[in-house]
Amino acid sequence: METLVNMAAAVCALLALAGAAYYLLCVWAVWKFCRENKRVRAAQFAPPVSVLKSLKGLDPHMYAAFRSHCVFDYDEYELLFGASDLSEPALALVRRLQQEFPQRQIRILHCPKSLGMNGKVSTLAQMVPEAKYEHILINDSDIVAPPDYLQRVMSALADEGVGLVTSLYRGHAGRSVPSRLEALGLSTDFMGGVLVAREMEGGVKFALGATMAISKSVLREIGGLEALADYLGDDYELGARTAAAGYKVELADVVVETALPDYTIAQFWSHQMRWARNVKDRRAAQYFGLVVTFGLAWGVFGVVLAPVSWWRWAALAVVAVSRFVAALAIGRGVLEDPYVRRDLWLVPVRDFAALLVWLASFGRNTVEWRGIRFRVRDGKLKPL
Length: 384
Hints:
Helices cover 48% and strands 17% of the residues. The protein has 13 helices and 11 strands. The protein has helices at residues 2-37, 62-68, 90-100, 119-127, 149-155, 177-200, 216-221, 234-244, 265-282, 284-288, 295-305, 310-334, 347-360; strands at 49-54, 77-83, 105-110, 135-138, 143-144, 162-172, 212-215, 248-259, 366-369, 372-377, 380-383. The chain has a domain at 2-33 and 280-368. It is of the alpha/beta class.
C-alpha cells in the first residue's frame, strides 16, 4: 500500500512540474503576443460595419454594454439588435438607446424563424441579410468595448488573407464567489490557453464570441450562419470553418469585457460543464492535454500523499510560483483585469474546481442550456 501511495505521489509531483512548464509556456505566449502588438500596422482599414447582436433575456450591466457601442471612434457603422420575440425585455433598453443616441444608426429586427437548436445563431442568420454593409461584426449582448474597438478590430482585416478577427476578453464578476471564480478562470487560465494554442498551432483556428468580424462574402463561402444553427459552440465553429477554408483567423490587439451574473454554485457548475463538454467534443486530444494545466492542484496532492519527501515540496513550490507569475502575466499584462490581484488568493480554489469539472466532464456528453438538457455530439445539440 505504501508503495502505491508513493507512486501516486510521484505521479502527482511530475504532473505538477509539467504544469509549471505549461505556465512558463503561457508567460512566453503572453510575451510574444504583447511584442507583436507593439508593431504599428502599415495599412489603415476602416470599412463601414454592421454590428449584430442577438438578444435573449437581460444581462448584468446590459445598458452600459449597449451604450459603449454608441461611442466608438469610427466613421460609419450601424447597430442591429435582433430578437425572436418582440416582447423581449432587452428591447426596452434598445429603445432607450435610440432616444439617447438619435444620431446613431440603431435598428431592431424581428427574427421569428427557428433554424435550429441554437436560438442565438437562428436570430443572427436572419439578421445578416438585413445588414447594410459588407463587413459585419458579431459580439455578445453583454460586451463592453473601448472607443477604439472597431478601429482596432477592423484594421486586422486589411490583410486579404485574414478571413475573421476575434478578440480576448475578461470577465466582470458579480458579488458571488462562483462568479469571481469564473472571472478569475478567464483572466488567469482560459485566455492563457488561447495564446498558447495560437503559438503551438501556428495561429488561431477558432473564434471567441466576444468578437467575430467577418465579411459577408467569406461568410457565404463557408456556408453561412444557417449551417451553424444546431451547434453549441457556434463561435468555435465559425472560426474553425474560416481557418479550414484557407483564411487566417486574427486575434485583435484589443480586449473587451463581459458581465458575469451572480452565479450560485449549481449555476457555475452547469456553465462550466457546458463549456467543458463542448471543448471535449470538438478538440478531444487538446482537451485531454489539459491535465497538465492543473499543476497547482497536482502539486498539493503530491505533498498530501507524501509529506516527508523534500522533492515533492520543491515541486509544489516551483509550480506555485510559476502559476501565480502566469496568472499576473495574463490577467494584468494582457487583459488589464483590475481585480486579478484582489482575487489571487482564490487561484487554488479555482484550480481545484476546474480539475473537478475536467474529471466530471468525461462522465457523459449531456449539457444544460437555458433550462433544457441536450446531448452534444460532433458539436451539435441533440435534444434528450
